Amino acid sequence: MRLRYMELRNYRKFREARIEFPDGVVAIVGNNGTGKTTILEAVTWALFGNASSVVRDNKEGVVSFGASPGDECSVVLEFDLGEDSYRLARNMKVKSLKTDASLEVNGKLLATGDTEVTNAIVDRLGMDHQAFFVSVFTKQKDLNALANLRPAERKALVLRMLRVDSLDRVIKAIDADANNAKKEAEGVSVSLRDANGNDKIGSLKEEERAAADSLKRIVDGSSKLLADKKAAAEKSRMTRGLWEAEEERYRQDVALERRQTGARAGLQAMHESLGKLEKEVGELQALRGSLPDLEAKEKEYQNARSAAERHAALREAFLKRQRLEEELAAKKAELESLRAEAEQAAKEMSGLPDIEASLATVEATLNETRELMSSISAQAGVAEAEAGRLRAEIARSKQKADEIIKLGEDSNCPTCQRRMGEQFTDLLRRYQEEQKAFEEGAVLQDEVRKGLMEQRSRSEQRRDALEARRSKLLSQSRLKASLEERLRRSQQSLSRTQERADALQKDLDSLGPVEYDSKAHDAAKRRAAELEPSHLALNRAMTKMERLPLALEEKDKMAIAVASEEEALRTASQERRALGFDMKALLTLKKEHEEARQNEERLAQEIIRAEGEQRRLASEIDSLRKRAADLEMLRSRQAYLKTELETLSRLSQVMKGFKENVISRIVPTLSDVSSDLLSQLTEGRYGGMRLDDNYQMWLYDQGEEFRLERFSGGEVDLANLCLRLAISRMIMERSGNQMNFLVLDEIFGSQDQSRKRSILETLGQLQKQFRQILLITHIDDVKDNVSAVLRVQEKEDGSSTAVLED
Question: Contact, 349 vs 487, CB < 8 A?
Fold first, then answer.
């Protein structure tokens, strides 16, 4: 893998950056915190997205501080892998944190989508983000871990970096599968035996044979039940026909009995109605003889009532004229009062002056006075502020003069830093003149303010007088308006009252004089009351006499109906005697039918029970067969699990042996590669290095072997760097891809200048294995020993920029 170009936008400290990656050893130089490591983190983010080991904290931390919600955080990465050219773009919305990506190979789109692109990268590189980090990135903390750990811990770290520990997970998974298979086989074995240890399949087959025998017996008995039920059904049908025929005769007998009962009841009611009609006709014929006396009294009653009604009309006219005269007198008195009130209001209004003109003049003068007061207040405020400013200038001038006096004539000027000398006296004199001028100006402003305040006081007195005058005029204006309203209402009331008085007089004139005699009126009412009972008796008699013709007609019709009903009763009695129904015969036939029906139903229930038992036994047999089949499957599963357990046990032994074989080959390989690198970096001073079986490091010094702890910190860091580079090379070779790409992050540690130069020269030699080596460091003097320098600097706004230096 070889990086060619990367473009950043709103990624951590880089608001916008475009970076080209040359071949060779490229030093990424800058102060701590400027974003050197961020450049390589952007490479891994573009490749693998928001994996937990890629982003430091969370997705929000990837976005530049200050990016607006509508922006995007994006990284575009161009690189070569093998013979192919890749262009990878990954972006994330600032607001929603939704990530998208696209991958092009040789100009053709290969994949789109966040997860899809990551999977394609993993497939092409042959490693995931964890393997990529371990194989490509080497940090100082990794070297420190290799140096500070005990041999057993160092062994675990190296195996984890080489991902050999994944074999432990595989072995553990195989052992877990074997254990699960063993437990399941034991469970299946228990399921195949009952509580007494007997074989469940044999017991089920025995139960199936017993159920089949019971089913055969029930099927044979069902044939006889069907024949018995058929005979019982025929008998039930025959008895039912006889019973239903007798039921029909019973219904006819009941109907005839009802006709007899109805005829008797109707005949009795008709005889009662006929008697009442005969009595009513006799009473009406007697009443017809008393009508002449009642008719004579009716004429006298009508005359007395007419006289009472005439006197009542005269009384109403008399009372109406009396009310009109009283109301007319009241209206005339009201007219006199209203005329007096109107004259009084007009008189009071005539004594008031011209208020509107005076009020307008006072209002205008009052507004002018208020505006003048506002202007005076503003001018006084300006004068007061100016006096304060001048006195502040006096204080500042005095402070400067005091500083000059305190410094003395031989000191330097605090402004120009030159010796004051003769300027000392001139400065003091200028400050005194300046203070005097400021003081005179302040006194003048105080006098101006004092004059303005006196003028304001006079204006306030004038304002108060005008407001009092205005208040008085407003009171007079309200009084005038009130008087005008009183006069208007009085005139309106006077007009309405006069109209009502004229109308009353007109009504009296049209009514004319009325003569009413109350005694004659009372006598007429008494006579009409005395004759009213005779009047009512006549009305009742006339009403009853209207009933006489109808009563005679109803009496004749009722006599005919009685004769007809007596004939109907005789006919119904004859028909019932001819029918000759016997209740005992009906009950006997009904009992015979019920017995036949119950026998039929009993046989039907027995057949249903037999059919249900057949279905139950058939279902039981089916269930027993299914349970036996399930147990047969369990028996097959048991055999399979035994075979699976044997296979997994053998596989576990094979994987454990494979792990030991891999580990046994790791130590010699790492020792050879690390030893070659150490010899190159030390220019042959050390003959190489070796890892023992406990991953303890040994160095060859002048032909002798010594433990790593014997040497200084620089040699220790150098040895650990060689071991770390050897681990990276092994991971790359195992992935099947030639990465040609290595990142070293702050690896110099405690190395002296000579050793740093030696490391850089060796890194140059490593270009045979690694076409690009990116060296992250804050040490600026490495630039003379590298192929190119990528300088990272922080701008004033807190963002960073990366510039490739020639």
Answer: yes
